[in-house]
Write a structure and sequence with these properties.
- The complex is a heterodimer of chains A (529) and B (190).
- With 529 residues, chain A is α/β, with parallel strands linked by helices.
- Helices cover 51% and strands 11% of the residues of chain A.
- Chain A is built from 22 helices and 14 strands.
- In chain A, helix 7 (141-164) packs parallel to helix 8.
- Chain A is elongated, with a radius of gyration of 26 Å.
- The mean pLDDT of chain B is 94.
- Chain B is globular, with a radius of gyration of 18 Å.
- Chain B has helices spanning 12-17, 24-40, 52-58, 62-65, 67-72, 89-99, 103-134, 155-162, and strands spanning 44-51, 78-85, 139-143, 170-171, 177-178, 182-189.
- In chain B, the strands form two sheets. In chain B, strands 1-2-6-3 form a four-stranded antiparallel β-sheet.
- In chain B, helix 2 (24-40) crosses helix 7 (103-134) and helix 6 (89-99) packs antiparallel against helix 7.
- The chains are: A alpha/beta (529), B alpha+beta (190).
- At the A-B interface, helix 17 and helix 18 of A face helix 6 and helix 7 of B.
């Protein structure tokens, strides 16, 4: 069994909304908790079930003081560790979770249940104080190793308890591990995690919060079957480091999207994520971390339903879209042309080819560029390959082409530099943004006309000379004098920097073509929302 | 003054400057674009030596208004004016490639143009330095309009003076040289 192509939110904390008792009561009663999670999974059709686990449970068993409240999740309030081994079978709250897993297994015998435990390094941080432990990894590593061994034994025994109760997938969350320097990850976190995974015969999963892009190889090295990534990461950046045999789990934002957005926005964000990641056979659609207890159930239902539907739709395609994305990303124009011709001949969905093949490659390039793992020439090779594919695809697209451009781009009056502006245009168009190119040496009034007469919401000013700054200022002033406060004026070019751009009254500054594309997409999203 | 031997070469340093050192497909495409760049350029240089006071007179008010230029030429007896261009062919081709959506080709050609014009002005700079050294003199570093407080408007004076040797060199209302791949500079002789 593996988690490929499954859909589930991490944990089941919003289940707390479905019982009248508070979270404190639920955390101590198997009956109440089981009732809550059963009601939750009656509505949220997840492929992997969780027992409503809280992060404080192992630290509490090891002697830390935990604060309980009806309205918030249990949290460690005071560190403290016992020297004696924790007997997990006698620990009341651990027994509650085992009881809930047994109940879930009875109710949903065909669905896998996660045995969720916390990583030894995280628990060590809870029982001894996070800052103390992070300091001690440098100053007193032996002390940390002693503590880690106790935390490991507790995690192992607790995992055994949950697995014996019917848990199938050993799920380890180790949030504190992302704060370790990458070169210390293996010694203080990876090695203990590897021991936990090695012992378990069934499927395993590892979740570490935060930016784990620099420790992906080490996470894979723990021997885990599935890696869950935080929402702060673009999955396309890490996908190449995860072998095809290991599931990539991720990573819809649990707060900004799942908790705070509308149902419609959740469904759109889900489809968007599947569009990008669904071409990977080892992708598993989930949240970037556990959605908070206050997350609206309707949002979670929208997430799971739209996730199932869009993954199924993608699964119906008989062509290898990933191969097209790979060749665009590699900038191999001949192979892109050949693969696109094959795909079109086999009646592949043109929109899927566009979004999950061609555009996905550019998005990945853009994400890698932002992560400083590639340079502009590499992006331009991708852009050229994109256009070769797009030329073939274009006659098959019954697009929904926008009539109105979304941005008017031009080099300001007195300045004739064209290349930088043209690069921004090419990259924006690759990302699906419709551009009106006003050319070079453009008068301030022409920019204003683009906004007032043609209804173009974004104005992009390219400025390469120090004298061009005066023009930018003049344009901003002209817009202000005409009461165009809604217009968004962005600028870039050798004459500009962030400070100058803002001091001249611009709304945004981009240091290069890729940054410009990111700015423009961000503003367009704001405007559309 | 004639430029000393100018033999631009495609080496690892240039490949690194282009940011394609780790990109095999890009590196494979580079030699052909480099060759094309060399075929497209029409290098022209121009130099002229003025007495220090004559320079300040001709470049009034820009030179006197620039603290950097005044400091640079504090001990100078003469001032060399340097102009280099690679002509319009390369930049037209680069622009046309970008419009045809040959982005990589157009971008690299443009970058090579920037490299080549900078390489020519550096070689011209070195030639002037050598010449002065042979006469027993010394030179200051090179300095161009548009940097710090030396107004870009000074480029018009270079263009007016060089017009008989490089008749196609122009300046627009924003004081930008056309062809764009052109450089003007001053260099003090001590």
């Amino acid at each position: 069994m593996n988690l490929f192509r499954t859909v589930f939110p991490i944990n089941a904390l919003p289940a707390a909304q479905l019982v009248s008792e508070g979270i404190d009561a639920l955390s101590h009663s198997g009956g109440i908790k089981l009732k809550a999670v059963q009601r939750y999974y009656e509505q949220v059709d997840a492929d992997l079930l969780f027992c409503f686990s809280d992060i404080a449970i192992q630290a509490e068993a090891m002697g830390a003081q935990v604060f309980f409240s009806p309205d918030s999740m249990p949290a460690v309030s005071r560190p403290g560790a016992t020297l004696t081994r924790v007997d997990v079978r006698k620990n009341p709250r651990m027994r509650v979770n085992a009881e809930v897993i047994r109940g879930l297994k009875r109710t949903y015998p065909a669905r896998p249940v996660a045995a969720m435990v916390y990583g030894p390094f995280t628990v060590a941080g809870q029982v001894a104080g996070e800052q103390q432990v992070l300091r001690a990894v440098v100053k007193n590593p032996d002390e940390v190793h002693n503590l880690l061994e106790k935390a490991y034994v507790c995690a192992r025994d607790y995992a055994d308890l949950l697995l014996a109760a019917g848990g199938l997938v050993l799920w380890v969350s180790d949030p504190l591990a992302s704060l370790l320097p990458p070169n210390m990850f293996w010694e203080f976190a990876g090695a203990s995690l590897a021991r936990l995974f090695e012992k378990h015969q069934g499927p395993t999963a590892l979740h570490i919060c935060g930016d784990t892009s620099r420790i992906v190889k080490e996470m894979v090295g723990t021997g885990v079957d599935s890696i869950s990534f935080d929402q702060c990461l673009d999955l396309t950046i890490v996908e190449d480091e995860v072998p095809d045999s290991v599931a990539i789990i991720g990573n819809l934002d649990p707060v900004e999207i799942l908790e705070l957005a509308s149902e419609k926005a959740v469904a759109e964000a889900t489809v968007d994520l599947v569009t990008v990641m669904g071409i990977k056979k080892n992708f598993c659609l989930s949240s970037g971390c556990a959605p908070p207890a206050t997350t609206p159930l309707a949002n979670l239902i929208a997430f799971v339903e739209s996730g199932h539907a869009s993954l199924a739709e993608m699964g119906r395609q008989r062509i290898d879209i990933e191969e097209i994305a790979i060749q665009v990303h590699a900038g191999d124009r001949k192979k892109v042309t050949a693969r696109m011709e094959e795909a079109l001949a086999s009646n592949a969905d043109p929109m899927l080819l566009l979004n999950s093949g061609l555009m996905r490659a550019i998005r990945k390039g853009s994400a890698r560029y932002e992560a400083h793992s590639c340079h502009l020439p590499e992006i331009l090779l991708m852009v050229d390959a994109f256009y070769d594919g797009y030329q073939l695809l274009r006659p098959h697209l019954s697009l929904c082409q926008r009539d109105t451009p979304q941005i008017a781009l031009g080099t300001v009056q007195g300045d004739i530099h064209e290349i930088g502006k043209d690069l921004v245009k090419v990259i924006l168009e690759t990302m699906g943004v419709k551009v009106l190119d006003l050319g070079v040496n453009v008068a301030a009034e022409r920019f204003l006309a683009a906004y007032l007469d043609e209804g173009i919401p974004l104005i992009g000013l390219s400025a390469f000379n120090t004298t061009s700054r005066q023009q930018v200022e003049k344009i901003v002033e002209l817009f202000n004098n005409h009461g165009c406060a809604q217009a968004v004026i962005l600028t870039g070019g050798a004459a500009m920097n962030q400070q100058v751009a803002f001091s001249l009254g611009c709304h945004g500054y981009a240091r290069d073509a890729m940054a410009a594309a990111k700015q423009v997409r961000g503003w367009l999203k704001k405007i559309e929302d | 003054m004639k430029i000393d031997k100018w033999h631009p070469c495609l080496d690892e340093k240039l490949i690194t400057w282009l940011q394609i050192e780790n990109n095999l497909p890009a590196k494979a495409l580079l030699p052909a674009i480099w060759q094309e760049a060399l075929e497209l350029i029409q290098p022209h240089t121009w130099t002229c030596r003025l007495e220090r006071e004559d320079f300040f007179e001709r470049f009034s008010p820009h030179a006197r208004q620039s603290k950097v230029v005044c400091r640079l030429l504090e001990e100078a007896t003469g001032v060399w004016l340097l102009v280099a261009t690679i002509g319009e062919g390369l930049e037209s081709r680069a622009r046309s490639l970008l419009q045809q959506r040959e982005s990589f080709h157009g971008y690299i050609l443009d970058r090579l143009g920037s490299f080549l014009v900078e390489d020519i002005i550096s070689t011209l700079d070195a030639s002037v330095g050598n010449h002065c050294q042979q006469q027993g003199g010394q030179t200051t570093r090179r300095y161009s309009p548009g940097y710090r407080d030396f107004s870009l408007a000074a480029q018009q004076i270079f263009v007016d003076m060089a017009c008989s040797d490089i008749p196609y060199l122009q300046v627009n209302s924003g004081h930008i040289l056309k062809p764009e791949k052109s450089v003007t500079a001053i260099k003090g002789e001590i």
